[in-house]
Amino acid sequence: APPGAPQRRVPSRRMEQAGDALEEVLSKALSQRSLTLGVYEAAKLLNVDPDNVVLCLLAADEEEAEDAALQIHFTLIQAFCCENDINILRVSNPARLAQLLLPHTATEPPTDLHCVLVTNPHASQWKDPALSQLMCFCRERRYADQWVPVINLPER
């Protein structure tokens, strides 16, 4: 087996748990209306009120990953989040993110889900076990020098 192969199994289980936790956090944030969707909306909020943002999600499928403008936006948002101690995750399956979020948003043209911010409307959200689990996952990944960990939302 190549060096480090056995250790890969542990993170995948952790990533599954993190994926479940993320789904729970998103569903709660939807019901509390504490989500900001879209690169431009996110950039505006990060500029005005970064202290209220508890989590930033970036999502792009393989085709979009080639989009230079989008990658520049991602790089700037990542830098801003790192500077402001905002946990950041990259969602590897944007289609699942859309399934979770779009049925609940207005039926206008497709919403930009490349960037999703979860804000903290109530201090009580800090006691949210799913959010705490995600924070731990982000911290663990940072210790492993993975500043923007990739997460997979579970398919249902």
UniProtKB/TrEMBL annotation:
The answer to whether keyword Phosphoprotein applies is yes
Alphabetized UniProt keyword annotations: Cell cycle, DNA damage, Growth arrest, Nucleus, Phosphoprotein
Can you cite an annotated GO cellular component? cytoplasm
**Where is each Ribosomal protein eL8/eL30/eS12/Gadd45 domain found?**
20-102
Q: Which coarse location class describes where this protein primarily resides?
A: nucleus
Q: Which GO terms describe its biological process?
A: DNA damage response; regulation of cell cycle
Return the InterPro entries for the record.
Answer: GADD45, Ribosomal_eL30-like_sf, Ribosomal_eL8/eL30/eS12/Gad45
Name the source's superkingdom: Eukaryota
Report the subcellular localization. Answer: Nucleus
Presence of the UniProt keyword Phosphoprotein in the record: yes
Task: Output the Pfam families linked to this UniProt entry.
Answer: Ribosomal_L7Ae
User: To which protein family does this belong?
Assistant: Belongs to the GADD45 family.
Matching PANTHER family: GROWTH ARREST AND DNA DAMAGE-INDUCIBLE PROTEIN GADD45, GROWTH ARREST AND DNA DAMAGE-INDUCIBLE PROTEIN GADD45 ALPHA
UniProt protein name? Growth arrest and DNA damage-inducible protein GADD45 alpha
**Organism for this UniProt entry:** Asarcornis scutulata
User: What phylogenetic lineage does the species belong to?
Assistant: Eukaryota, Metazoa, Chordata, Craniata, Vertebrata
